[in-house]
# Entry
Amino acid sequence: MRELKIQSEFTVYDSVQELPDDVRELMLLASEARNKAYAPYSNFAVGAAVKLENGEMLSGNNQENASYPTGLCAERTVIFSAHAN
# Structure
């Protein structure tokens, strides 16, 4: 038997204004995307944002479907958008 120890270290910010500029911009993009989500069944709107290697920032949101498991999560829509454009 082995014992495995995992440690994490992170910074806690008291407000979005304290975030580094690029991270704050991603948070705002994700928040705006969340406001455009289509989630009439769960009422759980999600937004996501990514920053590409070239510096471009993209966002996406969840899109539910009446056939519940076939909806798209926010992370998938932003990745699909990055690849498609």
Remarks:
- The chain has a mean pLDDT of 95.
- The first strand starts at residue 47 and ends at 51.
